[in-house]
TrEMBL record:
Compartments it resides in: Membrane
Source species: Marinomonas profundimaris
Taxon lineage: Bacteria, Pseudomonadati, Pseudomonadota, Gammaproteobacteria, Oceanospirillales
Domain Histidine kinase: 382-593
Top-level EC class: transferase
Gene Ontology biological process terms from the UniProt entry: osmosensory signaling via phosphorelay pathway
UniProt EC number: 2.7.13.3
GO molecular function, one term: phosphorelay sensor kinase activity
Protein name: histidine kinase
Keyword Transmembrane found: yes
Catalytic activity: ATP + protein L-histidine = ADP + protein N-phospho-L-histidine
Length: 602
């Protein structure tokens, strides 16, 4: 008993095992904080990249619509049997409804290419409908590029007769459009009719006499007749295409050293002086090099809170502090128990010396000693139980973190979580060992090889479909070595699309895979209601669904991701359906060597 008392008497200080538990608990807390921070940062950055790409895509789509208007004007000029008159152009612009269909266009007009020899005839022709028509300003070039027609005329009167050759940005872009046969825009200019003198540009489409773009510069000079053009004031263009209302990003556009447009100032809606993200993206825009500077706004900051990692860190530190406090309390309780055991032992020694004289007293002391040992056993049990309570809290916290992040865990993160759970289990076993001790003496893009048909069948099984829905697999490829993640995304989305958007009663999905030349051909066929011809290309657009949102699952991004992946790897694809009975998605997939050659060039 005296030896046991000496062992316990040294335990009033924290044992090394206590410090191990606290250290591992702190490691768990900071690991959970770090993992969560990384996950939140990745999600937030992905959302910002999406918003930035969407801004650029909207500008590109808007410019493509304006280009269509220019080529429509070129088509008109070719269609007219005689020279197009001012009235003809006015009727065309009115029918085109440029102000409502093409917001942001400041005017749509025609520029004629006039040599010095043909200038008198040109002026006589124009003065028949506009007696005061004249070219301006004067310049020293040997050719003339005057604005002949412009609509709406009332707001663009100053532009009539303006010669593009008088200023280098207008002139260089005009010649480039003539020489390339393609639509081009000018560098930053100020429109003569813009009283505020804000940045703008002109958009040219070349017009040739033989209704085609010539191959050589010589033939261009002989067949070139002029340009159809549109003029833009930059801030009006952006207001028409991308009104800054409740947007999660602000942006600016620069052309070389000159600023075209900017929302990056305190006067812009939701401007954030210290943005979470800022990125510069260079875009080739019809012969010019535009640089988009995109940064997150205050609205983005509000909608993407990053407080979760901080809350996890604070919660973990609080639990660690409570654990340390419990260890201190247990240490003090142990010290009191040891003191009591020493007192009982001393009393027992005295009782043994007076055994013959006070037998009844010895019996009483022995009873007290038994009760003391029971108290020590109870102390050991309670100490273990109280020590396990915060450890279970740590384990539960780790489980909550894993459940909260399970949809976005990377393999490395999953490995970390498994390691942390292993540490907790290890600590639990250590506490059991301590309890036994106290009773001694008393008691990369990554290539993978897999079976193609088996993987497709496995992806279908993840959908947990009704038993009446049948999946047929006709795989002639067998084992395939390829980049697994992109192919799985394509197959999963096509199979899920066939399952979600088609009849569940006696539904059939057929997967076919064949080898053709040096690549693979795969098809996903269903017996559903089919896709009408007019919708077969629209289904690949972002957020496009053929049914109302409330009637289908998903975000509307599945087939858009399929299209982007297939185009990235140079794959051909098509949708075949009569719009009534069944749909077939067919796509190519490159071989292993083709993929490696492709990836080595990127």
């Amino acid at each position: 008993m005296y030896k046991h008392s000496k062992i316990l008497s040294g335990s009033w200080r924290l044992h090394w095992t206590h410090w191990v538990v606290i250290a591992l608990s702190l490691l768990l807390t900071f690991s959970a904080w770090f993992i969560t921070s990384q996950q939140v940062q990745q999600k937030t950055k992905a959302q910002f990249d999406f918003q930035a790409d969407q801004i650029i895509e909207l500008v590109q789509e808007r410019m493509a619509k304006y280009e269509e208007a220019l080529w429509a004007g070129v088509a008109l000029l070719h269609a007219m049997p005689n020279k197009t008159s001012r009235d003809d152009w006015r009727v065309f612009a009115t029918r085109l409804k440029i102000e409502s269909r093409f917001p942001g266009i400041n005017g749509l007009g025609v520029i004629h290419y006039v040599s010095e020899a043909s200038m008198p005839d040109y002026l006589n022709w124009q003065r028949e409908s506009m007696p005061n028509y004249a070219l301006h300003p004067k310049h020293n070039e040997g050719e003339y590029w005057p604005i002949t027609y412009i609509e709406p005329l009332a707001s663009n009167q100053k532009a009539v007769g303006l010669d593009m050759a008088h200023e280098k940005n207008r002139y260089n872009a005009a010649k480039k459009a003539r020489d390339t046969g393609e639509a081009n825009i000018t560098g930053p200019i100020t429109l003569v009719q813009d009283a505020k003198k804000t940045p703008g540009f002109l958009f040219y489409a070349p017009w040739y006499g033989d209704d085609r773009s010539p191959i050589h510069a010589v033939s261009q000079e002989t067949t070139f007749l002029g340009l159809v053009y549109a003029q833009f004031i930059m801030h009006k263009l952006m207001d028409g295409a991308l009104a800054n209302t409740n947007r999660q990003v602000n942006f600016s556009i620069d052309d070389g050293e000159e600023a075209l447009y900017s929302e990056l100032n305190a006067n812009s809606e939701n401007y954030d002086s210290k943005p979470l993200f800022l990125e510069k993206i260079a875009v080739d825009m019809y012969g010019r090099h535009w640089v988009f500077t995109v940064q997150s706004s205050k609205l983005f900051r509000e909608q993407h809170s990053q407080t979760q990692p901080i809350m996890i860190l604070i919660g973990g530190i609080v639990i660690d502090a409570l654990l340390f406090f419990i260890f201190i309390l247990l240490s003090r309780a142990n010290r009191r128990a040891v003191a009591y055991a020493d007192k009982v032992t001393e009393d027992l020694k005295q009782s043994n010396q007076a055994l013959m004289a006070a037998h009844s007293d010895i019996q009483m002391r022995n009873t007290e000693l038994v009760e003391a040992n029971k108290d020590l056993d109870q102390f050991a049990f309670v100490a273990s139980h109280d020590l396990k309570a915060p450890l279970r809290g740590i384990s539960q916290l780790a489980q909550w973190i894993e459940e909260d992040l399970k949809d976005s865990l990377t393999p490395q993160t999953s490995e970390f979580m498994t390691l942390l759970q292993g540490r907790v289990s290890r600590l639990d076993k250590l506490l059991d060992a301590l309890l036994s001790y106290s009773r001694i003496g008393r008691e990369k893009a990554t290539f993978e090889t897999f079976n193609l048909g088996g993987r497709a069948t496995e992806l279908f099984s993840f959908l947990s479909p009704d038993q009446t829905f049948e999946f047929r697999c006709d795989d002639e490829v067998g084992d395939i070595t390829t980049v697994v993640v992109p192919l799985e995304i394509v197959l999963r989305n096509l199979i899920a699309n066939a399952y979600k958007h088609h009849h569940k009663d006696a539904g059939i999905i057929t997967f076919t895979a064949k080898v053709k030349d040096d690549h693979y051909v795969m098809t996903i066929e269903d017996n559903g209601p089919g896709i009408p011809q007019e919708h077969q290309q629209k289904i690949f657009e972002l957020f496009r669904t053929l049914k109302p949102r409330d009637e289908v699952e998903g975000s509307g991004l599945g087939l858009s991701m399929v299209k982007k992946i297939l185009e990235r790897y140079g794959c051909e694809y098509q949708v075949v359906s009569d719009g009534k009975n069944g749909t077939t998605f067919c796509f190519d997939w490159p071989s292993e060597q083709q993929l490696k050659d492709m990836l080595s060039k990127q």
